[in-house]
Design brief:
Elements: E1 7-11, H1 16-27, E2 31-36, H2 39-51, E3 55-60, H3 66-75, E4 81-84, H4 99-127, E5 130-135, H5 148-168, E6 173-180, H6 187-190, H7 200-205, H8 211-223, E7 228-231, H9 233-244, H10 246-255
Parallel strand pairs: 1-2, 1-4, 2-3, 4-5, 5-6, 6-7
Helix pairs in contact: 1-2, 1-8, 3-4, 4-5, 9-10
Length: about 260
């Protein structure tokens, strides 16, 4: 799908991967709808896109709230491309995580992607075109110790992606899953302690990528209609080793990971 002239909705677009993805879609000629909780940060991103000559609109919404998801869908008609990027959650052992926080990290990314996609799916099916991108985490492929709630939500997002892909085959609506390695975004500063829980073997083997690299991968996934993209290549290699040698890979992740 060529994105020039298309409408693209990006969640979690106030900073990091979402902000860069919105900018890149706009640079490719799309009109971008940016969604996040912070109106102030959204306005900064819209200004950045406008100064570059792009077209963008900000929409303040908390996607942990089903009512606000419904209101957003009423405000913004079904886009040509939906990028489910919003995600929150600290990396904690299950019994160290308050129930309210578990609910929140399940609501975003999983329920937010589930409910927002549901709002737009009927219109996409009816017109026979559209593309959905779910931005996921490596822990949806390679379980590590010390982040049960966050990890479970990411596995749920993986299941949503696979289920949608099966349902939408032959409809003209496509689905991509983009899984970057560790990203040099605000996530780790916003979630203290998470970075230290990355297993040593992953820190050693997988280089950090930038939000701009993630944005390129997201736009490429749409334009090239890619079903799945794990990057950098070291992450893909590690994921393959997990499928070929699950016991060894799991042991190394545990051995070099977080312990009480």
């Amino acid at each position: 799908m060529q994105v020039e002239g298309k409408k693209v909705l990006v969640t979690g677009a106030s900073q990091g991967i979402g902000a860069e993805a919105a900018f890149r879609f706009a640079a490719h000629g799309a009109h971008v709808h940016l969604v996040a909780r912070s109106a102030e940060l959204l306005d900064l991103q819209v200004k950045r896109i406008s100064e570059f000559g792009g077209s963008a609109t900000a929409h303040q919404a908390d996607l942990a709230d089903a009512g606000q998801i419904r209101a957003l869908a009423e405000e913004v008609p079904a886009p040509d491309v939906l990028v489910n990027n919003a995600g929150v959650g600290r990396w904690l052992f299950l019994d160290d995580t308050e129930p309210e926080e578990l609910v929140t990290m399940t609501a975003v990314p999983y329920l937010a992607a589930l409910l927002l996609t549901r709002e737009y799916l009927g219109a996409m099916r009816q017109r026979g075109s559209g593309w959905i991108v779910n931005v996921n985490s490596p822990v949806s492929r390679l379980p590590i110790p010390g982040c049960v709630g966050y990890q479970s939500a990411r596995w749920a997002l993986r299941g949503l992606t696979a289920s949608l892909r099966s349902d939408l085959r032959g409809t003209g609506v496509g689905v991509s899953e983009v899984i970057p390695g560790k990203v040099s975004s605000e996530y780790f500063s916003n979630n203290p302690g998470a970075e230290e829980r990355i297993p040593g073997i992953a820190r050693l083997m997988i280089p950090t990528v930038t939000p701009a690299q993630c944005a390129k991968a997201i736009v490429d996934a749409v334009e090239k209609e890619r079903a799945e993209h794990l990057f950098p290549w070291q992450l893909k290699a590690f994921e393959i080793s997990g499928r070929l040698f699950p016991g060894l890979t799991s042991y190394l992740a545990w051995k070099t990971g977080t312990h009480r």
